[in-house]
């Protein structure tokens, strides 16, 4: 089911039609379990499992995936801007324009690479300037 959720979320983030095979598997897992959505007195959503079966756990995961992919949660599906990652992630930032799935890994790597490229470029210009001034 992990692959099906990944495939559906990735396609949903690009606002294209969901793959039928992924939708079928997610729906099957959602239906097979005996998990039920419940409401607490604090107005919070909780899942109730009638047993500790794998089917019930997968049903909860599938139900949450359905809510996110269908756009029923406050947030936006996006794809990581890192060329080595491109994972689908759920952006809950206030502006809904996060670029990376995780700032501490993908975001940091991208910013570090950009900084180093800029530094190398400036260092090259400085060396060229120094070389020109020494030859004068």
Automatic annotation (TrEMBL):
Protein name per the record: CGNR zinc finger domain-containing protein
Organism: Paracoccus maritimus
Pfam families: ABATE (PF07336), zf-CGNR (PF11706)
Domain of life per record: Bacteria
InterPro entries noted in UniProt: ABATE, ABATE_dom_sf, Znf_CGNR
Segments forming domain Zinc finger CGNR: 77-118
